[in-house]
Amino acid sequence: MMIRKRSVIGALFFVSVLIIVNVYKEEESTVSTPLPVESDTTEQPKPFIATTPLKPSIQKTKVVEDTVAEQSDIKTQPTFETPWLSDPINELSNELYDFIESEQVRYINTTDYPFDEEKQTQLSTLAKSGDLIMFDNTDPDYLDNYGVSEAEVVSEYFGTASEGDVIIATAVLTKGGGIHYLVLPIKSENSTDNEKLLDDVKQAVTLLKEQKSDLVKPKSSQTADSNTTA
What we know:
Elements: H1 2-29, E1 65-67, H2 71-75, H3 91-95, H4 97-103, E2 106-109, H5 117-129, E3 133-136, H6 141-144, H7 150-158, E4 166-173, E5 178-186, H8 194-216, H9 219-229
Parallel strand pairs: 2-3
Antiparallel strand pairs: 1-5, 3-4, 4-5
């Protein structure tokens, strides 16, 4: 009887040892491996922020000579590869096509009024950059539908203007940081004489270029020229 009890006790002890060993192995197998921790010193990639350049705003000028507070902005304005702000689809633009191309006069037709945002930006930029702009108003009845005159359209960018079938306008940057506007209207006295209007437009472009050259010429050079002429 004692032998049987010892045998039973020994078997129970062996089974309990096996259970303890199995429990220990299961706990050891469930231990998770720690994930690698990234160092705080690792430089994180910086987000890329896209910025959209502001388009220049259009402001009405009230005087012929205006002060430019930011001349550096004028110098960095984009240039335009083509002189055609409006398509050359009427008689005047077709007759003057080669002249406009060779003289690099910026052409715009008032029949495009009201101008879209792109044309407004172009006109605002060109009015301050010194380019010659030709406003074609050979269809004067068109602007009447909007209750405006060609003079009002041009003065929006050059401060002043008069009525005309064609208006040539430009600007001269002064040393004092201002802008001197030159506006020359051309009106046809005879609606049937288109050749006369074409000649007048060409002469107006030449005249404005000469006046512009005189304004930017140093005073010493002007005095020397006048003495030479005398």
